[in-house]
Amino acid sequence: MKRFSIVFTLFLILFSSGCSSTSLVSSWKNPDIVLFDAYKVLVVGMTQNERARLLFETNMRDEFTKRNVEAMRSLDVFDVAFTDSARSEEELDEVEQQLLDKDFDAILFTKVVGYENKRSFREQVLDWETYMEGFKEDYNSNQGIYFKKDYYQDYDVYYAETSLYCICVGKERKLIWRGTIEITDPKNVEKVVDDYIQLVVYALQEQDLIIRKKTEHETTSL
User: Fold this and answer.
1) How far apart are CA 43 and CA 7, in angstroms?
2) Most buried among 32, 152, 159, 191, using CB within 10 Å?
3) In sequence order, which residues have a C-beta less than 8 Å from that of residue 123 and are 6 or more positions away?
4) How far is CA 176 from CA 18, 173, 216, in A?
5) Taking a C-beta distance cutoff of 8 angstroms, is the pair 61, 71 a contact?
């Protein structure tokens, strides 16, 4: 599994090089998961840039829809005031239960995060192999991104992290996959979002998570 992860990461670095404004710098998949299917996905973009959040959640939803996977934006699910202030674990428990009641079985959670320096970022990546918490814990520890206006002033290095969480009924709610993506040209929001989404879609497809590769029969259109 570790050898495959290294090869996959190197392949994605090559895939995302060139004219792209994004590049995958780390990818981790739960070693207990081989395939993962979801039928209704909540797309969450955690950033203070409202335009970027709208573009990301809308376009990512559309990518799932094109592949016959039902998806909804958090903008359409969360109350308008939900991201204005910190939410307790009890409130997040209620959110997860509401999602289950509405037949969601996965959350694709993306956040723009900061690190003090590249060393602290590498240390965080090393912690992933022991990180098995769920969406609630991830959201709870990072929700200041939404409403703390000085959040990004504390950091020198920035990355975006996308995590896929299972919230399936009768199964443990845990992390399935996480990728960290470096953004090299943040000024062009439309291009960044488009490049980012294409990279996430490709990563999910290569890891057999929700999105499946096209078979030879499907691509020949006979």
Assistant:
1) 28
2) 159
3) none
4) 29, 9, 27
5) yes
Alpha-carbon distance of 174 to 128, in angstroms, equals 13
Among 213, 210, 212, smallest CA distance to 107 is for 210
Contact 143, 46 (CB under 8 A): yes
Phi, psi of 154, rounded to the nearest 5 degrees? -90, 0
Round to whole Å and give the CA distance between 8 and 57.
26
For residue 134, give the 3-state DSSP assignment.
coil
- The gap between the terminal CA atoms of the chain, to the nearest Å, is 36
From the list 221, 212, 216, the residue with the least C-alpha distance to 35 is 212
Q: Please report, in tens digits, the pLDDT of each residue of the chain (222 residues total).
A: 443 333 333 334 333 444 556 777 888 888 888 889 999 999 999 888 888 899 999 999 999 999 999 999 999 998 878 888 888 888 888 888 899 999 999 999 998 776 555 555 555 555 555 555 677 777 777 777 777 777 666 555 567 889 999 987 766 668 899 988 877 656 678 888 888 899 899 999 999 999 877 654 444 333
109 within 8 A of 165, measured Cβ to Cβ? yes
